[in-house]
Amino acid sequence: MTEKGGTPRFSGDAILDHIEFAVADAERSRRFYEEALRPFGMTVIIRVGPERTRMGGTRYGMGRDGYPRIWFHDGEAASTPLHLALATSDRKVVDAFHAAALAAGGTDNGAPGVRERYHPDYYAAFVHDPDGNNIEAVCQAPHEHP
């Protein structure tokens, strides 16, 4: 939810409030993440221009329901890529994420499917973003067999 004045605020029991990481080109990453995270219902919530940032680069906050949970900013991308896993209770979202991320320029790092090495219901897909970060969509809900 957004309070008066446009400052995003969240109240809830989430353990992880948000994550932020550097990317080589925030605009390129914005285009990638807008498409790749659309199946999760995530959009750009806020853009902070370079005139308002400490490092002089653009920052984007993405999320849903008015609260940004994933932030990225211009700067030198990390030398060690991160692994970011996004949860869903619907395997179709995993499939849609994978397709959207590839269409947006991501690189396949594991097609949608069950990863039994984790457990029998771990259904996931993996894509490298433009900076080589490993972005995962995962559904751990038990699969309903018809």
Automatic annotation (TrEMBL):
Record keywords: Dioxygenase, Oxidoreductase
Pfam families assigned: Glyoxalase
InterPro entries (alphabetical): Glyas_Bleomycin-R_OHBP_Dase, Glyas_Fos-R_dOase_dom, VOC_core
SUPFAM superfamilies referenced in this protein's UniProt entry, alphabetically: Glyoxalase/Bleomycin resistance protein/Dihydroxybiphenyl dioxygenase
Keyword Iron: no
Gene3D superfamilies per record: 2,3-Dihydroxybiphenyl 1,2-Dioxygenase, domain 1 (3.10.180.10)
GO MF: dioxygenase activity
Domain annotation VOC: ranges: 15-140
Protein name: Catechol 2,3-dioxygenase
Species: Belnapia rosea
